[in-house]
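Consider the tokenized backbone below.
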């Protein structure tokens, strides 16, 4: 795994020794690790940063791990979650998986097994987000977008160069035309791993698209932001 593709993991574990051991081992595997020692810190981190995986202890001070996962899923965040639990009860496992965890390990666990599962969950998630785009060019309303060349020919005949991120966001929106693409999904697909632009950043991209492609940028017909949810392209 090269540095560029280095996966970002949120590690939520309140037992300090175990936390340090896990962090050290994950970092030795080449992962980037963000630490949280309680539920509310975990929730806050998940809202501010993109993660490829969350490793979540169940028994945490204040807010337990299952409640944290429930809250993360409420934000439309589909990050994979690996649960760690001291409990042997099958009940706990079923509950965790029902609430949206992707995998489960019971303490004490084998470190090798944890690393294998981490690797598997991250690869599975990447495969979904890296899936190939279905087309190279797209024509709408007199505009032609060439995704490979990262260029667009506008209806007035002028050509503009698109940045890589502009191209990716445009493609993502167009592929999901008439559907709202969540902010979470955009951050995951366009900004990728450990960068956290605020909503304003995506808004600025949308403003640029309107300037390029809309007849009247103040009265858009194609590029919309849906307050509190995400963004949408309409054909
Ligand atoms: Ca604990």
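A designed sequence for it:
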């Amino acid at each position: 795994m090269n540095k560029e593709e280095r996966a970002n993991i949120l590690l939520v574990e309140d037992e300090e020794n175990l936390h340090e051991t896990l962090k050290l081992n994950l970092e030795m595997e080449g992962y980037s690790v963000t630490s949280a020692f309680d539920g509310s810190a975990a929730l806050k981190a998940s809202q501010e940063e993109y993660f490829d995986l969350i490793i979540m202890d169940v028994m945490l001070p204040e807010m337990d791990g299952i409640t944290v996962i429930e809250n993360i899923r409420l934000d439309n965040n589909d990050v994979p979650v690996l649960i760690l639990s001291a409990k042997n009860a099958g009940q706990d496992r079923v509950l965790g998986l029902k609430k949206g965890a992707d995998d489960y390990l019971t303490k004490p666990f084998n470190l090798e097994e944890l690393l294998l599962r981490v690797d598997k969950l991250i690869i599975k998630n990447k495969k979904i987000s890296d899936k190939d785009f279905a087309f190279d060019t797209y024509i709408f309303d007199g505009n032609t977008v060439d995704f490979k060349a990262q260029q667009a020919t506008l209806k007035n005949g002028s050509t503009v160069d698109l940045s890589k991120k502009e191209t990716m966001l445009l493609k993502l929106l167009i592929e999901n035309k008439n559907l709202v693409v969540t902010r979470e999904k955009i951050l995951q697909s366009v900004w990728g791993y450990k960068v956290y632009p605020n909503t304003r950043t995506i808004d600025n991209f949308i403003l640029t698209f309107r300037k390029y492609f809309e007849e009247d940028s103040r009265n858009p017909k194609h590029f919309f932001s849906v307050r509190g949810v995400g963004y949408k392209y309409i054909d």
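Residues 137-233 form a domain with the Arc Repressor Mutant, subunit A fold (CATH 1.10.10.10).
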